[in-house]
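User: Teach me something about this protein's shape.
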Amino acid sequence: MKQRINIKDLEPGFYQAMFGLGKYEASTGIAAGLKELIKIRASQINGCAYCLQIHTVDARKGGESEYRIYALSAWWESPLFSDAEKAALAVTDEVTLIADKGLSEATYQEASRHFNDHEIAQLIAHIIAINAWNRIAVSTHMFHEAS
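Assistant: First, the predicted structure itself:
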């Protein structure tokens, strides 16, 4: 596969704005491990191999188990995730697939049992950010060399 274009080189201002999202993400109170699970899950849905490679490596470096990373594609059936993680992952699925049904009231209410309003806003912001990165990587054919 060959990368189509390099947006970072062609539109550096846009990339600076995207990096600004990363700075914001680092400032939130959402646990680092949950942030990585969100990034992996959205990247699975979007078929973004570039982001999957980055975020599975980062998750493992952060202490995430291989078992949980493998089970993430069926998180709703797995006993390896807490109720709060499952609520965040449900929000991830529905926001990533926003055209299907939006963020349903049931999913929102379940998330609100585990997260306050600021945390829900932060979860949504994290989901939006990784979806933006996925769309950049998939549309331009970004890829990592095998490691």
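Now, about its shape. The chain has nine helices and no strands. The CA atoms of residues 36 and 59 lie 6 Å apart. If you'd like, I can walk through any region in more detail.
User: That's plenty for now, thanks!
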